[in-house]
Write a structure and sequence with these properties.
This protein is mainly α. The protein has 12 helices and no strands. The chain has helices spanning 5-24, 55-90, 92-107, 110-121, 125-135, 138-152, 155-162, 167-203, 214-222, 232-236, 238-262, 264-269.
């Protein structure tokens, strides 16, 4: 469990930052508070951007869109994967339909479709979270189907059927609890996917323009022509890039640890 402590601490820290960061910010993130491109100082610990906005305030406020998009998108993806995976484990016709739907979603290139959806519907955070949730369920649904089928073949499930337990009761009382470790692992890994995709869209200029996010900070920093010709990159570009990288890496490590614990066969393959 000690392997997961560091990434768990980082993830918890980012979630806490998303919760209290805006209240702790020294200025509103969109306020013009000083001269443009000031280096870090006591008044502005991360300096200011080309518009004179405080970058510490933007960094503290920018964690919230990533956490909200990740949680909402992963919750939708997990719910769809559970519904489709469990349904496909119970019947052949439902299994054929679920596999066809999963193959269709897996065959669609995600980034071009996301760009098209955002262009048509609008670059709002709910739109991005829903689109990412709808695109990220198929692989998880296959895992749920495989695990559910394995549980349904166990002796205690056969005994429950023999005494008259309904399929719904078997799923809720027996199969559901057995899937909780897998659900937790896949939920965290899906959050990692959604956070990275949301940051990528914001970097491309397709994020919610009404929100300050780490990806949006990177987008605006890269739009400054002299970003790498001056030291400005070290206080404008580096903090949001480091925040995204640390958060996504910690989610990936935490999800991998949970996945290994949920699937003992993976743990046996890990180098010692």
């Amino acid at each position: 469990m000690s392997v997961a402590l560091l990434p768990l601490a980082v993830v918890a820290g980012v979630v806490l930052l998303a919760a209290i960061g805006p209240a702790a910010a020294p200025y509103p993130p969109d306020a013009f508070v000083a001269r443009p491109l000031l280096p870090p100082s006591a008044a502005h610990p991360l300096g200011t951007n080309a518009l004179g906005q405080d970058l510490l305030a933007q960094f503290l406020d920018g964690a919230r869109p990533s956490v909200l998009a990740g949680a909402a998108g992963s919750a939708l993806s997990t719910a769809l994967a559970l519904i489709v995976g469990l349904a496909s484990a119970l019947g052949r016709r439902a299994d054929a339909l679920a596999r066809a739907a999963a193959d269709l979603f897996l065959a669609v290139p995600h980034l071009p479709l996301l760009i098209l959806v955002v262009a048509l519907v609008g670059p709002s955070l709910p739109t991005i979270a829903v689109a990412l949730g709808l695109l990220s369920w198929p692989a998880f649904a296959r895992v749920v189907r495989a695990q559910a089928r394995a549980e349904l073949a166990r002796g205690y499930v056969e005994a429950a059927r023999a005494i008259g337990a309904s399929p719904a009761r078997i799923l809720v009382r027996h199969v559901g609890p057995a899937l909780l470790p897998v659900i937790a692992a896949k939920f965290v890994l899906t959050v990692q996917y959604v956070v990275l995709a949301e940051a990528s869209l914001a970097f491309l200029g397709l994020g919610d323009p009404t929100l300050v996010s780490w990806g949006g900070m990177v987008h605006r920093a890269m739009g400054y022509a002299l970003i790498f010709a001056t030291p400005v990159w070290s206080w404008w570009l580096a903090p949001p890039v480091a925040g995204i990288a640390l958060f996504v890496t910690s989610l990936a490590l935490l999800g991998t640890v949970l996945d290994e614990r949920a699937t003992p066969a993976l743990r046996a393959l890990r180098p010692r």
